[in-house]
Specification:
The protein is of the alpha+beta class. It has one domain: Penicillin V Acylase, Chain A, CATH 3.60.60.10. 14% of the residues lie in helices and 28% in strands. The strands form five sheets. Strands 13-12-11-8-7-6-3-19 form an eight-stranded antiparallel β-sheet, covered by helices on one side. Strand 1 and strand 2 form a beta hairpin.
Length: 349
Amino acid sequence: MILASVGIHHQANSCTGITLNSNDGAHIVARSVEWANGESPSDYLIVPRGYEKQSMLPDGTRNGMRYYAFYGYVGLASEDYVIEGLNEAGLSAGLFYFPEFGSYPKYDANMKDLTISDTEFVAWILGNFDNVDDVIEALSFVRVVSTDKRAQTLHWRVADNTGRQIVIEYINGVAMVHENTVGVLTNSPAFDWHKTNLDNYINLHSGGVDAHEFGNVMVSPLGSGTGLLGLPGDMTPPSRFIRTAFFQNSAPILKDANQAVHQAFTILSAMTIPIGAQYDNKEKIPDIPSATQWTSVTDMTNIRLYYTTMYNPTIRSFDLNNIDFMNVSYQEHPLDEIKARPIVAAKIN
């Protein structure tokens, strides 16, 4: 998924979010970002306390709401718009593509001081809040709008270091807040639809099915994992929601946060979209390694943010405890300095 302000191809965008906990009390969220139309501009931002910005408006001017960073944060971004981030208080926020089903409040120029672009909503949340309750309370004082007529709507995941997590969706101009006890988020339809759709897969379970009589015939499993028969394998948001929910909930709760971080990357690797899979045969396929451009894992408890990219599977990390957000300067760096998959020769004695 790439930011809506760049223009969206209906087959090219998908995001998948999951949630894990560890036995040492860590709360972790993770997500993937897909964009199959070509390489997206992907950077990380270091945003200090006191950083101030004014939102873009639908008329193309930066005369919208002024938002100030009371908390410093690290964000993974595209064209300086934060897609996923973590602040120094342990609050996580991220945007997910939400086409066709959402609609924002109508833009009112008389309320421009309360108006913020949907692509800047994550930055506003990260800079201003340290818990989910305060985010919910503040929604009545802000108006979210789109600044690109070509763009579809977004929805958002917000989680804090207590483990609480919500999904924010604008339906008919009204902010709807869903408690995300499932811990999974993809794209359209609306979140409550996805929760109901889980009922269609009540038969799924980990492990296998024993051999049994089927009429006059004895049927036996052809391999392990027969409890997964019927698990959807396509790339649509409803199928990814079900598949991810299954893998997330069948995974063991591991000893510590470090193990859970690796587990999150492993689970999301099952959602990786090979380039070309979303294209008709006659379409020109971009020369990039993967439609899944990057994956992030956020440890709200230990205040650490991790990522990998389609160019480099090495896990890179930010420990926000080691960043002096009072004195650090605003910074923007590419996720990959070298855009080529590293190959290291194996050691031979």
